[in-house]
Amino acid sequence: MKPIPKIAPCDVIEMKKPHPCGKSAFEVVRVGSDVRIVCLGCGRDVTVPRIKLEKSIRKITPGRKSDESPV
Ligand SMILES: [Zn+2]
Prior knowledge:
Layout: E1 12-15, E2 25-31, E3 34-39, E4 45-49, H1 50-55, E5 57-61
Antiparallel strand pairs: 1-2, 1-5, 2-3, 3-4
Bound molecules: zinc ion.
């Protein structure tokens, strides 16, 4: 069984396919049935269906969270 990647706003995700600008890192803006991500290279935002996005994620770097910070 494959673990389902958990995506949350502010997370930085690395995609298997880089953006045309050459960067493959995107910041998650909004999560729903569609996920809105912003390219960290050129700042363009892209809306991708969640199922499609989950398949093309290589790595997730959790972003700053306001609700659960142990610091
Ligand atoms: Zn880009």
